[in-house]
Amino acid sequence: DAGVTQSPTHLIKTRGQQVTLRCSPISGHKSVSWYQQVLGQGPQFIFQYYEKEERGRGNFPDRFSARQFPNYSSELNVNALLLGDSALYLCASSLDGNQPQHFGDGTRLSIL
Amino acid sequence: GQNIDQPTEMTATEGAIVQINCTYQTSGFNGLFWYQQHAGEAPTFLSYNVLDGLEEKGRFSSFLSRSKGYSYLLLKELQMKDSASYLCAVFGDNYGQNFVFGPGTRLSVLP
Questions:
Q1: Looking at chain A from residue 51 to 80, which residues have their Cβ under 8 Å from any Cβ of chain B?
Q2: CA closest to A36 among chain B residues
Q3: How far apart are CA A54 and CA A92, in angstroms?
Q4: How many angstroms away from the CA of A43 is the closest CA of chain B?
Q5: B38 touches A at CB < 8 Å
Q6: Cβ(A69)–Cβ(A4) below 8 Å
Q7: Cα separation of B91 and B45, whole Å?
Q8: Which is nearest to A29 in space by CA: A66, A72, A67, A69?
Q9: How far is A84 from chain B (nearest CA, A)?
Q10: pLDDT at A53
């Protein structure tokens, strides 16, 4: 069975641009969560979606938004990129959000 | 607020036993998770505790004391491939901050 898949694997953007990251959960999983991980730190929670509705939001500015589609895949959008947005963006899926989460390999975003 | 503490780095010898501690203060508690993360890779799930006590899974065991806000991950018969970061994460409220990760403990296993 396929695990959590994320695309793209790497991305380079410049300040002020916008980016969209994509995630497909494990088949049967209805919850998707997004995390930002800066080098040397633990992942920071950004959003959780369940059944296409936002279930939780971390301490991130409104430049960060997300959505979940009917097939349970998800997109994370970041507007007006800043240098500090450079990080590994991880997507995790679980059956209902209350179960152990399984992570994708992440998208490494670099802002120049 | 949400706070999870772990030692930053630990070193152990191949074949030995190591215990990685985690203390937490979170609003709400619905479970504690341990993940392993090799450099440049995604975290992989190791263990899950929701009730007090010890959960054993092969060479890995995890302990939880909810009253003390404390957990540990025990790794036995250490192997070189166990060199990685170990992340403690608490599932707090169902809404809001949700899943809170600690900073991770970087374990180096020496021959």
A1: 55-59
A2: B101
A3: 15
A4: 6
A5: no
A6: no
A7: 14
A8: A72
A9: 18
A10: 92
Nearest CA to B42 out of A34, A21, A12, A51 is that of A34
Model pLDDT for residues B52-75, shown as the tens digit of each residue: 999 998 999 999 999 999 999 999
Assess contact for A43 and A94: CB atoms under 8 A. no
Query: Please, are residues B104 and B10 in contact by the beta-carbon 8 Å criterion?
Result: no
Q: Which one-letter amino acid corresponds to residue A43?
A: P
* Dihedral sign computed on CA atoms, order A46, A84, A111, A41: negative
* Unique residue bearing structure tokens 């900073």: B103
User: Which is it for strands A19-24 and B105-110: parallel, antiparallel or unpaired?
Assistant: unpaired
**pLDDT tens digits, residue range A25-68?**
999 999 999 999 998 899 999 999 999 999 888 889 999 999 99
Q: Are the beta carbons of B89 and A48 separated by less than 8 Å?
A: no
Cis, peptide link before residue A70, omega less than 30° from 0: no
Contact A55 B41 (CB under 8 A): no
**Residue showing tokens 């497909």:** A24
Residue A64: both structure tokens together: 């960060």
The token pair at A80 is: 């007006």
